[in-house]
Amino acid sequence: MKLKALIGRNKSENQESTTGSYPHAGLLSSFQYLTRYPTTETNRNRLRARMYYQHFLGVDVLELAARVSDAAAATAKYKLPTMEASECVVCHKTLDPVAGMFQDYWKFADAGVYGRRKGGWFTDMFATGFEGEDMLSRERWRSLQWLGERTAKDPRFAVAMTEHVYYILTGRKVLLPPKDLEDTLYPAKSRAFSEQRRQTEAIAAKFAKSGFNLKTVFKDWIACDFYRADGLGTAAKDPCRQAELDDTGIVRMLSPEQMERKLAAVFGEKWGRLNGEMAMLYGGIDSKEVTDRATDPGGAMGEIQRILSNDVACKSVARDFARPAGERRLFPGIESSVIPGASADGDKAIEKAIANLHEKILGRFDAVDSVEVKRTFKLFAGTVADANEQKGLDKRENYSCRQGGAVTDDPHYTIRAWRGVVTYLLRRSEFLYE
């Protein structure tokens, strides 16, 4: 199905089209993309051109040359600095021709809809085109389609799409070549970059041969060592080796949306508070002012993690014990009456329950007699002992944790202890990161 060319209020506002159809060019001509990157009388679509290079060719135009140190001097010396001053031309010779491709989306630039500039396009900019090829005037009506055709033939396009998929899967951008030659780890970082670049280009080549079937990129990244690696077989004590392997694997902090989905999968329901402003504090985005997710926790994010672990454990543990053993998610093989230290069989049952929690919450398959299970058992037993030492401590579960048909009585303080264990596990990096 083809859309007809737009018709304005008067003939001069009609959309030019040789075929009579709207010359859409996928994302480039979409309302959402153009609105996300609006233009102004002084910017002249250069933002759109810069984002085009970054999104579709993987080129950061601002990195092509150093910033002009004295813009006023360049303006005073040249009539058209962007076309005459060498420090300006190095970027504008690339940027301005592509900016001209978006000229038909100018009149309502902030709304991202069709509308030509009154008086025609600017003449004090490099001619509309792409990478040294000027676009013929008869192609202007379909300029973004013209650009898209050349983009698909550019080898950088396949590489850029491959890099986007890597970011989707890992939450990290691909490595950039190291610049500091004086860095003692420069050789190791350079080798890491070279190895990742080799893998990226190999996947990109297969992507191009497949007719740009993006599924092949996902499959190839998932099958490669950069994605499948899960820790080192032996500890890498050499700093250079550590630097080489630093970007291998897929450890990433879960986004607010991912965290809510994981909580629902483990506990049967979402926390329900990682939305709105809370989500923004936890590194979320609103796709307007904030478009990049935080990948490392700050003070506020760490506090939210503590609140989450306390609240989820509070609501889940006592409620789970209230269910029949066969319907429990967290404690199917143990009762709250089992006390640590009372018998060898009881301790064994507690350790099995802990190993089950490690698997369900952390994704770890720890043996019952493993160090990790022993450490968590020590926390459980210590919490029970500490509660028994407190005089007058209420032998009922905390009031705020009794909601939703939860167990109320806790005569041995074991529910309190299990709540502490779940809180501890929810604060572990294995749960917060994937």
Secondary-structure map:
Layout: H1 31-36, H2 46-56, H3 71-77, H4 81-84, H5 86-99, E1 129-130, E2 133-134, H6 143-153, H7 155-170, H8 186-209, H9 214-223, H10 225-228, H11 239-245, H12 256-267, H13 276-281, H14 299-321, H15 344-362, H16 371-389, H17 414-426, H18 429-432
Q: How would you describe this structure to a colleague?
A:
The chain is mostly helical and 434 residues long. The protein folds into three domains: 11-152, no CATH class; 155-245; 256-432, no CATH class. It contains 18 helices and two strands. The protein has helices at 31-36, 46-56, 71-77, 81-84, 86-99, 143-153, 155-170, 186-209, 214-223, 225-228, 239-245, 256-267, 276-281, 299-321, 344-362, 371-389, 414-426, 429-432; strands at residues 129-130, 133-134. The protein has a two-stranded antiparallel ribbon with strand order 1-2. Helix 16 crosses helix 17. The longest helix has 24 residues, at 186-209. The chain is elongated and about 90 Å long. The protein starts with 30 loop residues before the first helix and ends with a helix.
Alpha-carbon distance between the two ends: 42 Å
Can you tell me the overall shape? elongated
Helical region count? 18
Question: Whole-number average pLDDT?
Answer: 89
Classify the beta-strand content into a percent band.
Answer: under 5%
Helix content: 40-55%
Q: H/E series, N to C?
A: HHHHHEEHHHHHHHHHHHHH
Q: What ranges have pLDDT less than 50 throughout 5 or more consecutive residues?
A: none
**Structural class by secondary-structure content:** mainly alpha
Sequence of strands across the biggest β-sheet: 1-2
Radius of gyration: 30 Å
Count of the domains: 3
Say how many strands there are: 2
